[in-house]
Structure formats: structure tokens, C-alpha cells
Design goal:
The chain is mostly beta strands. The chain has three helices and 19 strands.
Length: 293
């Protein structure tokens, strides 16, 4: 949960007489349904539990942070210069000039293996406004991801997922009079008539049922699966295959984007998973550094 602290100091204009300065992102807090709730942590011995309660400071549709200026973040892929917003609300001072140079370099160092400095130009003779700068960063990253996929190699992926075996049935066969009277589980030959056959092995019915009920999935002798399944063939794993450069999200499960070997060598994150916390501009080198999360 993001912690809000009212900001009272001046945000802009920046002191451009400095050699380097930080470009933060601020939004005005707008109350929503989450403001009605409060989170407290209760401790029980060595266990901590987070409890959600009604926010005692929420009154008349507002919480204690209503209207305050607060640090925020933006998701690069969502940013729209015509309607500048952060993850928490309207982006403040989006038309303020924050970089008073028309030609600068953006340092692209995440999430790439081969970092590069990309030169960009502002048609505004005064430099880059905050909204224009963020929009330019978005455009640069869109081109980076596009060019990466164009230059990356094709790979063959094997995707494995667990099978529920909902349609599985046990490989149960009636005893066809096999002469092997000793049960391989209990090693006794009593009750020879009350037996079942699994993958050509004869067991006491009670012994093999106890074996299965204890969670065993394979034959006690040959370790082959005791179940038939049209999807996984008794392996509990369903395999599928994909050939391409980037494994689609719907096939990854909880895994991150695969590392590609294109010009930039992107790893770990899709463009819609990139967030900017703040930026730092060095006027001496004309280099913009992005602090990303």
C-alpha cells in the first residue's frame, strides 16, 4: 500500500542553474473507495496478520490526504500526454519545462543487457515539458521493444503445466488367475483370491487400495503410473510447445518475459510492466537517467 505524505515544499520550477537535478512525479490525491479502508498489523506470538478496518479518518467522502500533493509513479505504456495522469491521479505541472535543452540523451539501462544512450529532440525551443518528456520516453521504449523483437532469434519453448487428471481412471484389472500369490506390498500369500491386477502385477485388493489412498501414484514394483489420463498419460504434467521470439503472456504463468538476444537484450519485463518513479537530468552531459521500479 502506497504511503502518502503531504508535500508542502515547492515542486517546480526547477533550479536549472544546478548542474544536475531530480525530476519527481507528483499527483494531487483524489479520494476513492480504497480511502474508506485502513490497514493495521496485529501480532500473535511470531506471526503478523494484516487486518482491514474502516478508516476512522474518512469523513464526508474525504480522507486526511484529500487534495495533498504526493509522490507518484507512472506506467510507461499507459502515459498519454493529452491527459497526463499517474498511477494515483492527475499529473501535476505537466506543462512545466523541466529540461531546458532541445537535444538530450536518454540513458536506457533497464531492462536491457546492452545499455544505450538514445538521442532525442524537442521541437519546443524552450526544451522539454514534463508531459513531453514522459511521452518521449514512452515513444523510445516502444521503438526499443519493437526493434528488439525484430532482431531477436527464434526459440523453441516447452511449456509444462500440472494436470488435474479429472478424467483419469485407475488401471484396475480383474485378477486373471495369475500364479503369483505373494502380494508385493505385504509379502504375504494369504487371501489370494481377493486380489487386483495393476500393470500385470497382482496385489491384495486391500493393500493396493491403502497404497493409493496414501497418495501413491505409481506401481510399487515397476513405478509406472497407476492412472490413465488422455491429457498427460499419467505423468501429471501436460507439455505444449511454442516457437517464437517472445513467449506469450498467457503461456508463461507466473514467469517473467524471456530474455531475448536482440540489439538490446531485453529481459524480465514487458513494456507494460515498466514504471518510472522519478528522473534525473544532468545538464553537463545532457543525460536523462530514469529511476524505474
Amino acid at each position: 500500500m502506497r504511503t502518502y505524505r503531504p508535500i508542502k515544499r515547492r515542486i517546480y520550477p526547477l533550479r536549472t542553474s544546478s548542474a544536475q537535478w531530480k525530476i519527481p512525479l507528483y499527483s494531487k490525491h483524489t479520494c476513492n473507495s480504497t480511502c474508506k479502508l485502513s490497514y493495521i498489523t496485529q501480532h500473535y506470538d511470531d506471526t503478523s496478520v494484516m487486518v482491514i478496518i474502516d478508516n476512522p479518518n474518512y469523513q464526508d467522502g474525504k480522507c486526511m490526504y484529500s487534495g495533498t500533493f504526493n509522490p507518484s509513479i507512472i506506467r510507461i505504456s499507459d502515459f498519454d500526454a493529452s491527459c497526463s495522469t499517474t498511477m494515483d491521479g492527475e499529473l501535476l505541472y505537466d506543462q512545466q519545462i523541466v529540461v531546458p535543452d532541445t537535444d538530450i540523451f536518454i540513458d536506457i539501462s533497464y531492462p536491457v543487457t546492452h545499455s544505450k544512450k538514445i538521442k532525442v529532440h524537442s521541437p519546443n525551443p524552450l526544451g522539454f515539458s514534463l508531459a513531453q518528456l514522459l511521452s518521449t520516453v514512452k515513444e523510445v521504449y516502444e521503438k526499443i521493444y519493437l526493434y528488439e523483437e525484430q532482431t531477436a532469434s527464434v526459440h523453441k519453448f516447452t511449456i509444462e503445466r500440472s494436470c488435474t487428471c479429472s478424467s483419469s481412471i485407475l488401471k484396475i484389472e480383474n485378477n486373471m488367475g495369475n500364479d503369483a500369490n505373494i502380494c508385493p506390498i505385504c509379502l504375504n500369500d494369504d487371501d489370494a483370491k481377493n486380489t487386483k491386477t495393476f500393470c500385470n502385477h497382482v496385489f491384495h485388493t486391500k493393500c493396493i487400495e491403502t497404497w493409493i489412498e496414501s497418495g501413491k501414484e505409481t506401481c510399487p514394483l515397476c513405478r509406472s503410473s497407476l492412472r490413465n489420463c488422455d491429457d498427460c498419460n499419467g505423468t501429471k504434467i501436460i507439455k505444449s510447445y511454442y516457437e517464437g521470439k517472445v513467449l506469450p503472456k498467457e503461456m508463461r504463468g507466473s514467469y517473467c518475459r524471456n530474455h531475448t538476444d536482440g540489439v538490446f537484450g531485453i529481459y524480465g519485463a514487458d513494456i507494460d510492466q515498466l514504471y518510472i518513479d522519478h528522473m534525473i537530468y544532468n545538464r553537463s552531459t545532457k543525460l536523462l537517467t530514469l529511476d524505474m521500479i
